[in-house]
Amino acid sequence: MAKVLVIGSGGREHALAWKLAQSPKVDKLFVAPGNGGTAAIAENVPIGFTDVDALLDFAQQNAINLTVIGQEAASDAGVVDAFQAAGLAIFGPTKAATQIESSKAFSKLLMEDQNIPTATFKNFDDAAAARDYVKDRPLPIVIKASGLAEGKGVVIAQNLAEAEAAIDDMMVQKVFGDSGNTVVIEDFLKGQEVSMQALCDGKQSVLFPASQDHKQIHDGDQGPNTGGMGVFAPVPWVTDKHLQTIKTAIVEPALKGMQAKDAAFTGCLYPGLMIDGDAVNVVEFNARFGDPEAETYMRLFDGDLYETLLACTQGNLDPASVTWKSGTAITVALASAGYPGKYPKGLPITGIEEAAAQPDIVIFQAGTTLDQDGYKTAGGRVLYVTALGKDIDEARDKAYKAVKLIKFEGMQFRTDIGLRPIPA
Asked: Residues of the chain with pLDDT > 70: what percent?
């Protein structure tokens, strides 16, 4: 029987742990550092996800058979490299392979080298040169901090003043710290954003169903970007032709390019896409399970996640072994008042158990703690209500009925997850 360690503290890690716990081969489950929800199905371990030495020591002392990276900062900190050097099985990319996410400048050059479709771009490490460049580009224009910024280091500038302000914020004011030392400036892509994820063993890959995230805090895609306020999968208008393009023109060339750089990618590769008609372009690559995409995908995954992820670490992923449930899954995030800005913590939460008892509902926790008085808020995105249905309408109906049962002071959520229009 296997012992498994999941690294991270959000809803994504709760979802991964929930699915791993269903494997008949998993005997003991740990989450580092975990949250109030993971405490109910695993043993939380008070180790930060970038504390490489402490994580390695824990894995060795507890004879961990498989470690699963949830939080991308762990990969960027070199956790995978340390575990591999010690001969331990770990699902996630090395520090070198994580550059496909941690450096947007690196990622865009990889796409250029491999002829992966993406927006016209240029990388800058000098603010004055960046300001000069945007003067001659069509508007709107996209300004991105090259480094990790928790999904928030992107500005779509509608005019020159906004573009120059974004460059100043990132490169001069350092609102994202060192992540803004280099910026990527790229042309704006038209279409609808689609999230695609793929399990990879370094050479082979298996695509997940397409999903759509809802980034802005308010209905109708209004307000500032967040880490994601909800998602659904599959996306009904994404065709087999689109999927074939994603596989052969995007995922496979990316894996080939990473191998050529001696940075073979093992883990979950997550290209964020823009689809306009038959055209599919990469907006960016991420090097981990999406959040809240993982919460939705774990409701649809129809297999033994432990066996599948272990096979990836061994370089022998069998695409035929990965199957998906029929129907649609949806996730609605419940966030604290003030998110994505400053928010209160320690507020009592009621209704989780009642909501989770509804048909086809699973509640994944993110920003929560659990004490003798019950669950309390501890983050910006607090809970994820997930539902399964035969189609998007049924899944939406179930999810929002469950949402109504949960309460904490200032709770905010979008009411339009899954209502994005189908392209003409």
From this structure: 100
